[in-house]
């Protein structure tokens, strides 16, 4: 039986292509000597477009910039590289594209690598069999799947777990693993499991550092995990950053339906008994106590998109107060005149025309509580048709109707809108929707994920003799942090006070108030309080209830709320509810769900010691 030895893994960036500090990178490679560099390459956050079109989340130039130091570390320091969800959506084509980029960089620098590819077998026959035998079910708030969703999907991928990575890691000759769509923590967990880490900390560390250094304070790009058998230590690479018990526990809230139970392939990670212990350097945290509980059936998440049509947009501005006062009535006139030319406009399967009024409810639509009249409005017109030509025609006609149409009280007869750009309309190409976001039972977690290995690049005897060793970069000196037990939170260098004891608003009691997608069919709200006193006060006030959220966000019933809870380890509150409109599709207002938090800022908390009036 082999003896376990602690080791380090390095997460330089939240997503490959998003960038990181190169000096911190090389300082980490040289000083910490991590065994593996691991990075996530994708997400469903940008919507269904990437999966539908095959286009990448980041440009080739951005990916090349980020991955070149990874490859140099692999060539010269023997650091393994693992990349998951290649290209953004993790399609097979995007895996090939990333491998081509790596091959080009290797050729240019005379590096030689063994590269493993993990792809996905889009087997519709198998999926239909699983559907007909009841082995595909909704994931969280996704709608019930239909057979036609499988048949009509433009593209389907699945989130692989750790097992396909583990199969590849058995081959010691592999330097780099490029995988298709993966459960975000999977490559981190896989490497840790391969090295003998217990299953619970292996998954927990992946859950945290798949976002890079965002769990540190202030939020950073890169982080190092020192893996122990039953726990791990997190240290940010930024010398001014630090991990605290609150910052680490709070990160498990980010983009999650709930922070204490995190489901994934093969099991659920329970975090209710976790401990977060500050280390002597004042910057690191020891994390221990998570529990991975296997599920009776192994399930993988299918993600599929359906092509809906083609989209064209235009933007314009309105400053005339007479038109602004009657804008809704005028837009109905424009829509009516456009419908006369395109009779199927607005029907269930026909063309669509949507006006987004920036300055007047464009972001939140019917959820917007502010009814004040703006002094100017920006209009984005969104036209969707069965072909690009139809979408262009609808956009062009409706924009002209906006420009020259008549309205009550009109005095400006030369034009109704300010047009900042030419061409006046912009064809945007195909538009999709997430039609599949469902869990499928599988007997073998590796069966749908074929693996292959190839050699890229070249290495001459000359390059073997002249391996470049980097000099240690000079980073800013670390300022020794004092006790991490303080209940005050430092944000962007400013120390904020606990809120006054009288009646106040959430914005005065918290240092984070945010919203974000939790998958394509949910939005989650997080409030992270300034202090224990603020947390206790909010909880005891009984203000942050499902009834409040139902009222603020005009939810049809309390059943649309999945979770509404306080989370003591992070001194935080979370609420997750069903998304009010399809993510990243026709009529989208906020693809990332990042601005739906605004009404929460002004929620009133009664004076200290008082409860909300019923």
UniProtKB/TrEMBL annotation:
Residues 507-604 form the DUF4387 domain. Residues 63-405 form the Acyclic terpene utilisation N-terminal domain. It comes from the Eukaryota. It holds the Pfam family DUF4387. This is 3-methylaspartate ammonia-lyase. InterPro entries: AtuA_N, DUF4387.
């Amino acid at each position: 039986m082999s003896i376990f030895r602690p080791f380090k893994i390095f997460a330089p960036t939240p997503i490959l292509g998003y960038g990181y500090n190169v000096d911190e990178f090389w300082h980490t490679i040289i000083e910490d000597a991590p065994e593996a560099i691991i990075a996530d390459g994708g997400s469903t956050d940008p919507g269904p477009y990437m999966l539908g079109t095959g286009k990448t989340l980041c440009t080739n130039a951005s990916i090349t910039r980020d991955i070149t130091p990874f490859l140099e570390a692999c060539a010269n320091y023997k650091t393994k590289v693992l990349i998951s969800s290649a290209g953004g959506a993790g399609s097979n084509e995007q895996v090939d594209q990333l491998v081509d980029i790596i091959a080009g960089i290797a050729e240019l620098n005379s590096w030689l690598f063994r590269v493993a590819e993990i792809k996905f077998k889009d087997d519709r026959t198998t999926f239909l069999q699983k559907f007909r035998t009841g082995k595909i079910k909704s994931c969280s708030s996704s709608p019930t799947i239909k057979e036609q969703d499988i048949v009509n999907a433009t593209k389907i991928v699945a989130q692989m777990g750790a097992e396909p990575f583990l199969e590849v890691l058995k081959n010691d000759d592999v330097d780099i693993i490029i995988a298709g769509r993966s459960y975000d923590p999977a490559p981190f967990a896989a490497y840790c499991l391969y090295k003998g880490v217990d299953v619970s900390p292996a998954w927990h560390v992946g859950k945290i550092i798949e976002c890079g250094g965002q769990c540190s304070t202030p939020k950073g790009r890169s982080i190092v995990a020192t893996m122990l058998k039953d726990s791990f230590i997190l240290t940010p690479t930024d010398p001014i950053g630090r991990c605290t018990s609150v910052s680490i526990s709070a990160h498990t809230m980010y983009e999650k339906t709930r922070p204490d139970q995190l489901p994934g392939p093969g099991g659920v990670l329970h975090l209710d008994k976790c401990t977060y212990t500050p280390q002597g350097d004042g910057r690191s945290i020891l994390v221990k106590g998570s529990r991975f509980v296997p599920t009776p059936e192994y399930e993988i998440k299918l993600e599929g998109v359906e092509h809906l049509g083609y989209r064209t947009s235009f933007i314009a501005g309105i400053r005339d107060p007479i038109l602004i006062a009657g804008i809704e009535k005028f837009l109905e006139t424009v829509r009516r005149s456009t419908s006369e030319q395109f009779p199927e406009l607005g029907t269930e399967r026909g063309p669509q025309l949507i006006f987004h009024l920036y300055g007047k409810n464009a972001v939140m639509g019917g959820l917007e509580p502010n009814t004040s009249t703006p002094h100017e409005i920006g209009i984005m017109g969104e036209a969707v048709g069965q072909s690009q030509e139809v979408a262009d025609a609808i956009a062009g006609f409706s924009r002209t109707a906006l420009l020259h149409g008549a309205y009550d009280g009109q005095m400006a007869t030369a034009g109704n809108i300010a047009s900042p750009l030419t061409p006046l309309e912009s064809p945007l190409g195909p538009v999709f929707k997430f039609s599949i976001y469902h869990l499928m039972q599988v007997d073998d977690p590796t069966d749908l994920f074929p693996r292959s290995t190839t050699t890229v690049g070249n290495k001459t005897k000359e390059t073997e003799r002249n391996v470049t060793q980097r000099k240690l970069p000079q980073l800013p000196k670390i300022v020794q942090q004092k006790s991490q037990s303080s209940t005050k939170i430092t944000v962007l260098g400013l120390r904020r006070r606990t809120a006054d004891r009288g009646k106040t608003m959430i914005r005065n009691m918290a240092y984070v108030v945010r919203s974000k997608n939790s998958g394509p069919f949910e939005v989650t709200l997080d409030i992270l309080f300034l202090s224990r006193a603020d947390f206790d006060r909010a909880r005891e006030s009984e203000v942050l209830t499902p009834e409040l959220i139902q009222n603020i966000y005009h939810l049809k019933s309390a059943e649309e709320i999945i979770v509404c809870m306080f989370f003591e380890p992070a001194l935080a509150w979370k609420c997750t509810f069903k998304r009010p409109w399809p993510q990243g599709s026709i009529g989208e207002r906020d693809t990332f769900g990042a601005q739906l938090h605004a009404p929460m800022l002004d929620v009133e908390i009664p004076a200290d010691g008082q409860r909300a009036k019923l």
